[in-house]
Amino acid sequence: MRRFGGERITNMLNRFSSEDEQGEIRLEMRMLTKQIEAAQKRVEAMNFETRKNVLRYDDVMNKQREIIYGQRRRVLMGEDLSESIKTMIYATIDGIAEAKCNPHAPKENWDFTALSQEICKLTLQPARPIFSDEEQKKLSYEDVLQKLYRFADAAYEQTETRLKQAEIDMRENERVLLLRTVDEHWMEHIDAMDQLKQGIGLRSYGQKDPVYAYTSEGFEMFDAMVAEIREQTVRRLYMMQVTGGPLHRVQLAKPIEPKSEGSAATFSRSEKKVGRNDPCPCGSGKKYKNCHGKNE
């Protein structure tokens, strides 16, 4: 009542209330009934709005989880990801090419030298010009992209040939690297989204819908995370020709079939202890501290 009734109601409460023998305050005016009912309705409406916003916040994260968990399931089920990897490579090249040779800018402003340097760095090839002087004059932007794709494909085939000679499964290494990179960035993204949700309520003071701001900024952060996953996966895959040797699974999550309804999934810990903020080895996608490490 004091919170929602304002100064007028506060003065009335002070004036028309008295204490009984036990020291409890008794209200002696029936006219306060409507004010009490109105205050109760406002509290209920506020609580309902809070619960509704929580659900809308959760809906944003649920949509993002569906995308990430879908990618993880493909990896854990052992799918051939070579086509997805190629798509990642081409998308990374697209970003580099657009930055160095803006298709909307005059061709004389295209920086073929910087473009060649970036692509050679990405694919870990010796630094050299990828385009001749004649090609720089004649090639369209689409032709430039196609040549870069072929250059990247050739470099990746070299990596695969080298690993094959060492009897290393390229497809398995692709899955391991992608899963590791996804899990690293997803854990960081969850923390970032939690921080965003905690601070987003302040937006209401600026006459902005906090849920809309959370949804908009949350998906911008998600898109940025996906781009980082893509680029880092590509760079790590090309680095295999430098590090050499097979990539060993370190507590790599695998699908677990429950033994019976209601039984909890179990896993065995390897020699290296799982960090509380690391992905849980059971494959749930949750942090260890929120899954099997909850009671530790």
TrEMBL record:
Its cofactor is Zn(2+). It holds the Pfam family SecA_SW. Residues 254-296 are annotated as: Disordered. Residues 286-296 have a biased composition (Basic residues). Transmembrane segments: none annotated. It is found in: Membrane. Residues 27-241 form the SecA Wing/Scaffold domain. It is a peripheral membrane protein. Keywords: ATP-binding, Coiled coil, Cytoplasm, Membrane, Metal-binding, Nucleotide-binding, Protein transport, Translocase, Translocation, Transport, Zinc. GO terms for molecular function: ATP binding; metal ion binding. Residues 149-176 form a coiled coil. InterPro entries: SEC_C_motif, SecA, SecA_Wing/Scaffold, SecA_Wing/Scaffold_sf. GO terms for biological process: intracellular protein transport; protein import; protein targeting; protein transport by the Sec complex. One of its GO terms (cellular component) is cell envelope Sec protein transport complex. Belongs to the SecA family. PANTHER family: CHLOROPLAST PROTEIN-TRANSPORTING ATPASE, SECA INNER MEMBRANE COMPONENT OF SEC PROTEIN SECRETION SYSTEM. This is Protein translocase subunit SecA. It comes from bioreactor metagenome. The gene is secA_42.
